[in-house]
Amino acid sequence: MEKHIRVPVDKETAKSLSAGDYVYLTGTVYTARDAAHKRMEEALREGGALPFDIKGQVIYYMGPSPARDGRPIGSAGPTTASRMDKYTPRLLDMGMGAMIGKGKRSAEVIDAVARNGAVYFAAVGGAGALLSKCITSSEVIAYDDLGTEAIRRLRIENFPAIVVIDSKGGDLYRTAAEEYRHSEGGDQ
Amino acid sequence: MIRAVDVKEITENIKEMCIEANHFLAPDMGRALERAAVSEKSPLGRQILSQLKENLKIAAEDMIPICQDTGMAVVFAEVGQDVHLEGGSLEDAVNEGVRRGYAEGFLRKSVVRDPLLRDNTKDNTPAVIHTKIVPGARLKLTVAPKGFGSENMSRIFMLKPAEGIEGVKNAVLTAVGDAGPNACPPMVVGVGIGGTFEKCALLAKEALTREAGSHSPLPHIKALEEELLDQINGLGIGPGGLGGTATALAVNINTYPTHIAGLPVAVNICCHVNRHITRVI
Ligand code: SF4
Question: Scanning every residue of chain B, which has its alpha carbon at the shortest distance from the alpha carbon of A178?
Answer without folding.
Answer: B236
